[in-house]
Amino acid sequence: MISPLVVHDISKSFGSGDSKVLAVDRVSFQVEEGEVVVIIGPSGCGKTTLLSLLGCLLRPTSGEISILGEEVTRLSERRRAQFRLRHIGFVFQSFNLISALNATENVEIALNLAGMTGAAARRRVSGLFELLDLTQRASMRPNDMSGGEQQRLAIARALANRPDIIFADEPTASLDSRAGRAVMELMQSAVEAGETKGLVVVTHDMRILDVAHRVLAMEDGVVREVDAATIRRAQANLAGDAGP
Q1: At CA 59, angle to CA 15 and CA 31, rounded to 5?
Q2: How far is the C-alpha of 136 from the C-alpha of 161, rounded, in Å?
Q3: For residue 164, how many other CB atoms are within 10 A of its CB?
Q4: Which of its termini does the chain have fewer beta carbons within 10 Å around, N or C?
């Protein structure tokens, strides 16, 4: 079985000479089919840069990234754009929805760009809205929806073309704890339902770690695997120390 994502020794630097900044430092890991991987770390540690590399938005300075066996770091800009459209889904903290379009149209436009139109596109949208509990919001515009509903709509758009892998950048940052938890459980359910082969979430939200199969910690551009249960126990102890 080919892994949805294999990352081998990737680095990314910006600038040169004395102003050179190493944002990602020789990172290696992989995501197996059906797996949810959460990458945690403080602001400025390189998480968003790493996610941009994995999603073919940036090219690494060195190293290799393979998605379903395709070594994407060697593709031309045009081929990488085509690969992103067909194989990668993105969920952003700021939702990035089109306010002039209603919920259905926001998802249909992603399908149309990939070549699916008409009745087939409408059926796909209907199925996603049922999965994500958005059926009653199909004709609403994003600005008339709650934050949790907007994030669920962003997930529907990310899933529209049945991407092989989804990358989510701080997907719960704009949500309260209840809505954030619901969004993560929905993304986990989408993986379990086979809507995508794998999910990588970059976050500093420690409340969502128990939806992950594996947790990676990033600091100063370096990534290491950590035990989610250990982190949760430490959080519980800190919460206890802060109590009355």
Answers
A1: 125
A2: 22
A3: 20
A4: C
Q: Which is nearest to 198 in space by CA: 32, 70, 63?
A: 32
* Domain of residue 93, residue span: 5-242
CATH of the domain at 101: 3.40.50.300
Pair 46, 58: CB distance under 8 Å: no
Please tell me the distance from the alpha carbon of residue 203 to that of residue 45, in angstroms, as a whole number: 11
Tell me the range of 101-105, 128-132, 155-159, 181-185 where mean pLDDT is highest.
Answer: 101-105
Question: Which sign does the torsion angle of CA 230, 234, 236, 240 carry?
Answer: positive
Is residue 198 within 8 Å of 5, Cβ to Cβ? yes
Q: Which residues pair with 62 in a beta bridge?
A: 11
Domain count for the chain: 1
Above 90 in pLDDT, residue 53?
yes
This prediction's pTM:
0.87
Task: Report how far residue 96's alpha carbon sits from residue 197's, in angstroms, rounded to the nearest whole number.
Answer: 23
